[in-house]
Amino acid sequence: MTYTKLLLTGGTSLLAGFFLFLAPLSTILEGTAGGLDWFLAAVGAFLLLEGITMFFLGMKARKRDLSRARTYREESSDRPFDDDRPQNPHQFPGAGVQGQVGTGGMP
């Protein structure tokens, strides 16, 4: 899974777990909880643990992805990447390269 899916799934599970854990908590603390209250609290606790795990796995995958070295060079065997660029970037372009000035810009 990508880190975005992990973060979204983990965050959603955290919200659902938080709600499901806290909703029956008052009846559990009062001592009048039934079986459904205990079941909802158990599912909420499980979702909290699962959400925390998925969220931190997503953060770890995001950190790994952001620290990976990137290259934007197109590897092509028929021509090198820089063959259309001048060897001296400070040299003025020739007359064939210069376009008409003032077209396509803002009025």
Please supply descriptive tags for the structure shown above.
single chain; 107 residues; mainly alpha
Descriptive account of the structure:
The protein is mostly helical and 107 residues long. It has a domain at 3-65. Helix content is 54%, strand content 0%. The protein contains three helices and no strands. The protein has helices spanning 3-22, 25-30, 35-66. Helix 1 (3-22) runs antiparallel to helix 3 (35-66). It starts with a helix and ends in a 41-residue tail after the last helix. The model has no long low-confidence stretch (mean pLDDT 81).
What is this entry, summarized?
The protein has 107 residues and is mostly helical.
Summarize the SSE layout with pairings.
Elements: H1 3-22, H2 25-30, H3 35-66
Helix pairs in contact: 1-3
The first-to-last residue Cα distance is 48 Å
Instruction: Let me know the number of strands.
Output: 0
Q: What's the helical proportion of residues?
A: 40-55%
The total count of helices amounts to 3
Q: Which radius of gyration do the C-alpha atoms yield?
A: 29 Å
**Molecular shape:** rod-shaped
Mean pLDDT: 81
The fraction of residues assigned to DSSP E strands is: under 5%
Structural classification: mainly alpha
Q: Can you summarize the main beta sheet?
A: none
Q: Which regions have little confidence, pLDDT < 50, spanning 5+ residues?
A: none
Encode the helix/strand succession as letters. Answer: HHH
